[in-house]
Amino acid sequence: MRRLAAVLLFACCVCARAETIVLNDGKTVAGSLVSSGEMTVRVNTGGQTIDIARSQIKSIEPDRYLFTLSDGSSVSGVIKDIDEQSFRVGTASGERLLPRSLVVSVSSFMPVAAAPAEQSVSSQTVTALSTAAPSAVVCSTCVAQSSFTVVPAVAAQTPVMQPAAPAQVAVSQPAAQEPSPQNEPAAETTTAAPVSAAAAKKMFSVQLGAWQAPLKLDLTAHGGPNDAGIGSAGVAYGAKYMFRKFGMWLGAELNFYSIASKTQSFASSDVKTSGEVVSLSVSGLYDLPSAKWYHPYFSGGAGVSSTKVNYNVTDNATQETKGYSVSAQQPVLYAGAGLEGAVRDAIVGAELRCNYISQSESMLSNSRPLFISLLLRMTWKFR
What we know:
This protein is mainly beta and about 375 residues long. It is about 5% helix and about 55% strand.
């Protein structure tokens, strides 16, 4: 009976307002949740019980309480759990465990119309937890082992148990006032938006196109000319990663140039050739300003390249086939111009590029140093 009486007394004083229900039109309803259904929420506002449609509810926010401690400090927050030894309180900086022996008074953090009277409660554990609504926990505080002052949130027409002896009346005010959670401004949320070309600091692009193969192979040892062409065109593909520095883009670029196989017949033999060129360059790119959705740009770079040519020689008399390979490393230079524009979240464009590779290998010495490549690019720019 003593435990039940303490529960009723404390629930009436402290938890007269357990939740604040914010409606879609901005209005609020303060009260204690009675039940929660799929369509409605039932709330006891103190004088009456009302049903509120869930479609009209924006949020349900629990009241905050102010704990005054024996050392003069105070802690405000939402009561998460209680037991015989402590209060577990959710504060702005995280959860705190307050020993009940240190708690002097507990008061609702909601503004009160008038200063209510103190009510002394003996060291009796009071616990009332309700989980009627999934989105909110209705908590009644439990009393510390050493008696402390309970300041009710609403000082009006709340039935309380009258002690046998006249109780002393004193006014207790919260040590500090802070805005309640429903009055605090909502945290700003930012929505990720596509990065504009002007704000971007990094760039990654992939490219695919064609190139005019300039390589010529000396086949005089196999009955052919000294400038036998090794394919007329091939596929070019690669990628680059760049940073914006000094008003332009600087970075690295890796490219592959494949050489389609080609078979040539001579008086004494048939020769089938194929090969590839790989280049790694330090690159730069400069965007020209434009008021339209597309803009032109210039690019350039320098680096190293590796050329490898494979060829198989079939002797017409013996029909014997032998394989050969020629490799060379040499510097590479390129300069180009292109046009690109934004399409959805990516940037697409095309670039015409002039490349220079001087072949030092004797069997490739008759190759043309200049060749043209046309590349289609897809680029992503980001911070």
